[in-house]
Amino acid sequence: DVTFSSFMLYNEQMAYVRRLATDYPDITTLELIGQSYEGRDILALKISSGESETAVAKPTILIDAGIHCREWIAPTVALYILYQLVQNSSNAALYQNVDWVIAPNMNPDGYEYTQRTNRIWRKNRRLSDGATCYGTDLNRNFGYFWMHAGASNNSCLNTYAGPEAFSEPESRALRNMVQNHLENARLYLTFHSYGEYLLYPWGYAVVYPDNAEELQSLGNLAAEAIASASTIGSSYLVANSAAALYAAAGASDDWVKSVGVELAYTVELPDGDSPYAFMIPARQILTVDRETWEGVKVFHSYIEEKF
Ligand code: 0X9
Ligand code: ZN
């Protein structure tokens, strides 16, 4: 079953997702969005109370986690959101007017590798044709201004963008998920760590989208909710990702926004007590998950009100 007191293995995470689908068939739909290079299923769970009773379709919130496999806290947040939505019946109102599609682990091969072999692995585990080193940075492999900045054509670097956009089965899986729900998708959250940032596009360069003000003010509301709930002093910086961090093209947030999901954020979750950085200790999982959930509910309210 699900636990938030230790980091679950990929198989345990997916067993939980499958069990939710089996035990709550009225509100959940299991989606096989793709398979990793090594053949692991990449799963998403849709949560919905069913068809809209009005002519207006319900807005959908898309969430993923684990694109960077060493950022172990990220899948725990996605699983915690699933847990709260599906198993905590007091949250049933959260899927009355809004649908959710949540993919908790986008890079299962890499995740397994960090569990068993190399804790600080970031990329996937496919060797590109003619490449020297294993793995593509999935967050440089998406097809919007691919390779424009902050990405490398050297396979031995952690920011290797792959031989072409969407060369990797894991980035294609996310593309599938987004395309399947594009009509109603209104918000995209992708969970990473670390640093306590709520980053919005564009990330390929310091360029502000038309709705930057909206992205900033909604991000501020979520950040305030997290700060109020935090027992560890979490304080998020809400900003354009290229301005606050660095320009990096080919990330999932930019591509998802480019295809029409106007509200897109990369959430950089807190790090552990120094010197853990992305190697956050398991005893902090629940703390981070709980405060992040408060932010997610703010995003939900906004989507519910606006659409
Ligand atoms: O560099 C990244 O991929 C993300 N940071 S991380 O430390 N998790 O690796 C930030 C991505 C921000 N979004 C864009 N640059 N589009
Ligand atoms: Zn990351």
List keywords for this structure.
33% helix, 8 strands, binds N~2~-sulfamoyl-L-arginine, binds zinc ion, eight-stranded mixed β-sheet, globular, 307 residues, alpha/beta
Question: What would you say this structure looks like, in words?
Answer:
The chain has 307 residues and is of the alpha/beta class. The longest helix is centred in the last third of the chain and has 22 residues, at 285-306. It has helices at residues 10-23, 73-87, 108-116, 169-180, 212-229, 241-244, 252-258, 285-306; strands spanning 28-35, 41-47, 60-65, 99-103, 185-193, 197-200, 237-240, 263-269. Helix 2 (73-87) crosses helix 8. Helices cover 33% and strands 16% of the residues. It has eight helices and eight strands. Zinc ion binds next to loops. The site of zinc ion has 3 residues, from loops.
Task: Summarize the topology.
Layout (H helix, E strand, L loop, with lengths): L9 H14 L4 E8 L5 E7 L12 E6 L7 H15 L11 E5 L4 H9 L52 H12 L4 E9 L3 E4 L11 H18 L7 E4 H4 L7 H7 L4 E7 L15 H22 L1
Parallel strand pairs: 3-4, 3-5, 5-8, 6-7
Antiparallel strand pairs: 1-2, 2-4, 6-8
Helix pairs in contact: 2-8, 5-8
The structure holds N~2~-sulfamoyl-L-arginine (0X9) and zinc ion (ZN).
